Amino acid sequence: MLGAIAPIACVRAPSERPVSVSSFRSTVFVAWSRAVLDGACRACFLPGVKFREPSQSTGRLVVFGRGAAHLVSLTSPTKMPPTSLRTSLLLLTFVSLALGLLSCTGCTADQGGGTNRPVVRASDPAKQAAQRANTFGFRLLQELTKGQEQTNVALSGLSAAMVMALFHEACAGDSRRVLAEALGYGGAADGALTGGFGDLLAVLNGRTEATVRMANAVYVRGDIDVLPTFLEVAQQRFSAVARARDFADPKTLAELNAWVAEQTDGKIPTILDRMDPANFAVLLNALFFQGKWQQAFDPAHTQPRDFTPEVGEPFEVAMMSDDVQAVVYHDATLGAVRLPYSGGDYSMVAMLPLAGRRLVDLRTELTEPRWAALWLALSHEASECKVGLPRFRVAATHALDEALTAMGLGPALEAGKADYSRLAAGMDASVPVAAKVTQKVTVEVDEVGSKAAAVTAVEMKDASAPEPPTFAPWFDRPFLFAIVEQQTGAILFLGQITDPRR
Question: What residue segments make up the domains of the chain, in order of their start?
Answer without folding.
Answer: 27-77+88-104+120-496
